[in-house]
Amino acid sequence: MKTIHEAAAALRAGRTTPVELVKQCLANIDRCEEKVKAWVFIDRAGALAEAHARADEIKRFQVRGPLHGIPIAIKDIFDVFDWPTAAGSKLWSQSIARQDCEVVRRLREAGAIFLGKTVTTAYASFDPPVTRNPWNLSHTPGGSSSGSAAALAVGMCLGAIGSQTGGSINRPASYCGVQGLKPTYGLVSCDGVVPLAPSMDHPGPMGRSVRDLAIMLQVMAGFDGSTIQKPVPDYTALLSEDAAPPCLGRVRGLFEDLAEPAMQGMMVDVCAILTSGGLRPPLAEVALPSGFGTVIADHRVIMAVEAAAYHRLRVQRHPEDFPPRIRSLIDEGLACPAWEYERCLKQQQRLRQQMVQCLEHFDALIMPATTSPAPPAETTGNPAFNSPWSFTGLPSLSLPTGHFADGLPLCVQLVGGWGREASLLKAALWCEKALGVQPLDAIVA
Amino acid sequence: MKTIHEAAAALRAGRTTPVELVKQCLANIDRCEEKVKAWVFIDRAGALAEAHARADEIKRFQVRGPLHGIPIAIKDIFDVFDWPTAAGSKLWSQSIARQDCEVVRRLREAGAIFLGKTVTTAYASFDPPVTRNPWNLSHTPGGSSSGSAAALAVGMCLGAIGSQTGGSINRPASYCGVQGLKPTYGLVSCDGVVPLAPSMDHPGPMGRSVRDLAIMLQVMAGFDGSTIQKPVPDYTALLSEDAAPPCLGRVRGLFEDLAEPAMQGMMVDVCAILTSGGLRPPLAEVALPSGFGTVIADHRVIMAVEAAAYHRLRVQRHPEDFPPRIRSLIDEGLACPAWEYERCLKQQQRLRQQMVQCLEHFDALIMPATTSPAPPAETTGNPAFNSPWSFTGLPSLSLPTGHFADGLPLCVQLVGGWGREASLLKAALWCEKALGVQPLDAIVA
Predict the structure, then answer these.
(1) CATH homologous superfamily for A118-250+360-434?
(2) B402 Ramachandran zone, left/alpha/beta (phi>0; psi -120 to 50)
(3) What are the extents of the domains in chain A?
(4) What is the ipTM of this complex?
């Protein structure tokens, strides 16, 4: 049982139980964790106890929804009641959360079972984590949601929660060959989540099918005082309709110039398959707004300044608790003049507006999800194809294609309009079907 | 230098420095802490560094207000950035706060210097703490703000932050012979504070003069989204005016029936002194509303139910982390039928309304602050004279009288009208002067 929607149907039909699902995940953990190192800790007893409780509810016909009894993983920057939130910090390794963060509260209420906390890079930044890519253990799983992506790729969980400020959902998901969704900025609450750069922090779901992303987003999204005040559509109901072919725009510029040949070849093949599958014309080339010329640099400024604002005092007191890449990010932020930060915030607003127009006639834009397949484990890879969407706040969904290079998965990315997750998910589901994508377990050697 | 207002004046006049004030407190800590055990931890280096920073600001004429450069103590249920918040729990002993709670944020902004965290009873409940009463080491300092009260009584700090749900500010302050103010419910934010019973949790200041309470409350009070939406008066300015004698009401009933002879005798003497000092007539006997007949029991129900609601899951998982009295409180709460809790919440509203009328013609009501002087250290003492004000949410201020029994201080309590801290503080200041109360250091033997 690899996907949430499949498991949820089997639970409803009595063909499996929450306990079996948890045991299946624990078996995969036993088989792979020693080499993959996806987890900060695993609460076997707690997860089994929850599974029994959820099973009893099912026997009483009290099914809370499609996440009822589903074992999931939580990135270790989200507060989970009675568990430490270390966020990759040694000094926070015993910092026990007194309450669930808003996202976890919602997932718990929906009946999800938490298996444990997954590895994040230190403070959700760029320093390479202990986690390895299950498709090739000498390569990176990407970051910062490293453990969530790697755990999914070998079935150690059925769904996972990640977060993205640069490329921290879409990049690790792609490197590990699973699905990831960075929602519209502000759709999902950051309350109780360790921040990296609050103007661009996006919690989001990671899973092994587009439907699974919709199921998780449905529960995670919603108003809590800090989020967008807009009713959340019924994503899952929309996906159950027969989907017409979407209208996609193909993005070049930045997104083709930086792509390695393997990614360019994959894009040609994927577009051919989608077109022959009946994609609604045109798969027109979309001209990106001029703001894209500096988007990577502008994104870096906001991330550096806001990380510096948050970590400034602790980095002074406990420099040893900050590995090199987050430290140099903070140093950059500390050295940045305020007018430069102000300019980038304005640019962020401007580019966000321009993208609304750019996406007006499309359900989504399509591009490679990453510049290359997962590189060796000395880095977490290049987030250049993801950070523009963290910057503009548009929803971005990464999708395996069934293509591989040297045994490493290659993924595409679909970017939707502001707050238009419903159209984005429908488009992604159509592509997933057209490409015949099925969840594949990496063979850990 | 024993009081904040005296130290603030000396700082302004250049007669002392924040560094000297911190060193004075640290010297008192060195002298007494081994026996008194008021602190969970002390950050000597951090406090001295802050003192130097505040001193530099003074040299540049950047004085933030009367708390600028004043060393204070924080009860260990308030989150202080980069320090653990243990709340008396062993499992939380390394739970480092990622940010200041609202009260600490305000105090820090006002220039206060945090010396460390003071001992609280486990989860701010009734289990005897390690802390001892500096006036007699075999007696209790009271609880739950045990360390804050004991530290003040020997000059280990100039001010302290406590909190009260039953009698946790006024009782320890009284047993240790210092001033304490439980403000009106909702005047001071509980955001980032470990709750005991949210409907009755009150953060408040403890100090060694009425003026000091006003100085601290001024900074602590204010709107943050969760508090009363009412402008905060300028308490300190009001206190600088020449105070007319207040109009006090004397409360009998409950508050005299339960008082031990030492307290009754003290009340007679104190009322005689105040009357001869020119108290505005009448020091009339005030009839308490009928709801007082069950107020202790009703208070206990709300406290038990809300403590159970908060601690329920952790007490199941970690019973060893809950000493006997908080456990039996939680057990009581778990066993309480919801309709009984609902009845008590209604009764709380009713009694609160009735007290508005009761206080209409008075600046404050006067009564003994506790049923007896500090009892032996096997309990934290009887909160019966304090919990009615935690229940109704009226502000209550406890005041040393200069009277002692067997070397232990005896205190009175003044209770003000809802949101009428200004009148209460003025009345208390007048009484403090009329009684000739001066801060006295306990001699730790």
Answers:
(1) Amidase signature (AS) domain (3.90.1300.10)
(2) left
(3) 118-250+360-434
(4) 0.89
Q: Summarize pLDDT for B155-172 with one digit per residue, the tens.
A: 999 999 999 999 999 999
Cα A352 to Cα B272: distance, rounded to the nearest angstrom = 74
Alpha-carbon separation of residue A249 from A288, A414, B75 (angstroms) = 11, 9, 59
Q: From CA A75, how far away is CA A162, in angstroms rounded? A: 6
> CB contact, 8 Å: B53 with chain A?
no
Residue B182 has pLDDT above 70, yes or no: yes
Do A82 and B317 lie within an 8 Å CB cutoff? yes
Task: Using an 8 Å CB-CB cutoff, list chain A residues near B81.
Answer: 313
Residue A269 CB-density burial (10 A; 0-12 exposed, 13-18 middle, 19+ buried): middle
Rounded-to-integer distance, Cα A393 and Cα A144, Å:
18
B81, B82, B92 member nearest A96 (Cβ) = B92
pLDDT in tens, B408-430: 999 999 999 999 999 999 999 99
- The pair of structure tokens assigned to A343 is 């300019």
CB nearest to B95's CB, from A96, A194, A314:
A96
Q: Which residues of B are catalytic?
A: 75, 144, 168
**Whole-prediction pTM:** 0.93
Q: Mark yes or no for CB contact B95/A98 under 8 Å.
A: yes
**Chain A, window 84-113: residues with a beta carbon less than 8 angstroms from a chain B beta carbon:** 91-92, 94-96, 98
DSSP alpha helix (H) spans, B285-407: 295-317, 324-335, 338-358, 387-392
Q: Are B125 and B322 in contact (CB under 8 A)?
A: no
CATH code for the structural domain at B4-242: 3.90.1300.10
Chain A: give the shortest CA distance to residue B328, in Å. 21
Per DSSP, the three-state class of A193 is strand
